[in-house]
Fold:
Amino acid sequence: MTKGLENKEGFKTLYKETYGPLVNYAYSKTNDWELSKEIVQNTFVRFWNKRNDINIRTSVKSYLFSMVRNGIIDHYRKEKNIDDFEAIQNNKNLVIEPDEISIQNEYKFKYGLKKALSSLKEKRRRIFELSKFEGLTYKEIAQYLNISERTVEDNIAKAFKEIRNYFYTNNLI
Amino acid sequence: MIDLKNILDYLNGNLSEAEEERFLLWLDSSDANKEDFEFMQHVYKSSEGLDKVKIFDEDKEWAKIEGKLDNTQTKSLTPRILRVIAVAASILLFGFVIHYFFKQEPYYRELVTKDNLDTVKLIDGSKVYLGKNSKIKYFIRQDKKTNRRYVEFEGNATFDIAHNKDLPFVVKVGDAGIDVLGTVFKIDKVSAGIGVENMQGLINLFEWKNASNNLILKQGDKAVFTNDGIRKVLPKPKKVNLSGKYYKVEDVLDYLFDKYDARMSTAPYADIAMEDKVFVDINQSLENILSQLDTTAVLKYRRTCRNCFEISILKSK
Structure:
């Protein structure tokens, strides 16, 4: 039996680890959060129901990404918007393209990073976001938050350290 | 000493040439340094566009799907349960077939008569002529391991058993048993117990729980099985024909030799009193004449063939 599918608890763990990245990945194709969640949930239900018949040659998580991708294609086919979507994805084959793996891995990493950031203290997270999302320099952040530039540097460094610990702790790397 | 800040400065392009050269030396000095740098670089690059990533409460999302899984899990298990049931049914069916075709004991059937008569023809060719208020449980199938033909019986019937020296025919009637190879006999329920009359061949009447308590019945023999044991029923005395008159023994013998020639003889050294007078009606069959003499005179004779008689003693009483 594939790891994560031996029992419901294992499946729950798999679900919690991959649900977020899968929905975000689906959103990148659909630009619709509700549709993305629906496709991912249906994917998990179908995956659980067919778990005894599935022969997985890749990792379970990669397989789920492929299922979601095919779920999106099926959805657009039903909606007869296939032509539009085929511009993005025109391959329903289960074989995963190398760049697709890279994209999927990126979504796993970004979701982990976002979760790691959410675990940071509010002030540290804010400094990190101003630096990375807003593109402010350390000096600008220091002025904006009325703190020393040294404090900004320290908080950015500690934020990276905590993020790395989060990834290690949660087996994300 | 290179720290996290130096990595960030390198990624931000804030290092001088000398600092960058020192940093690159540090980077090449160990795999652990490279891993740290690559992770930082990955985070650094992934930070861009991170605002578009949405995080979810996985426990809450799991609760939404768990209900669906419960339902679908049952469905998904249904074929498996059906498969298990199918396998179990197949095993049962297989067992039944094995049991049916390879059963050691034959199957039996019962027949009961009330106010009617009936005849059962058994698969071995034997026939049972059932009287009223009788019940028979008889075999309808036998296999290679069968070592006897077994019948249970209550009531009245005549059994005409097909001969088979390899398969004795055994009738259990009450606490008694009758063991035969091939013969004709009659069973009657009598007030004292079970009456058995052998009409042809030999039969062995025995107590079912103690087969050594038995009685061999020859043709014409009758016996009764009761709680007290097996008792042979003696034939009723023959009726004596009282008609007739006294003849000299010599005259009687002359008459019989003259009439029955080949069937009639006297034994060597026979004790025959020719001058004695015996009472007999000579106008009847040879058997009846001898039977009458047996009661009115001193007579001893034996059969020398089916209907042949040899007299050894004949004189008046």
Q: What stands out?
A: The domain at 245-316 of chain B is CATH 3.55.50.30 (Phage tail protein beta-alpha-beta fold). The first strand of chain B starts at residue 108 and ends at 112. Helices of chain B lie at 4-12, 17-28, 31-46, 58-101, 249-260, 286-296.
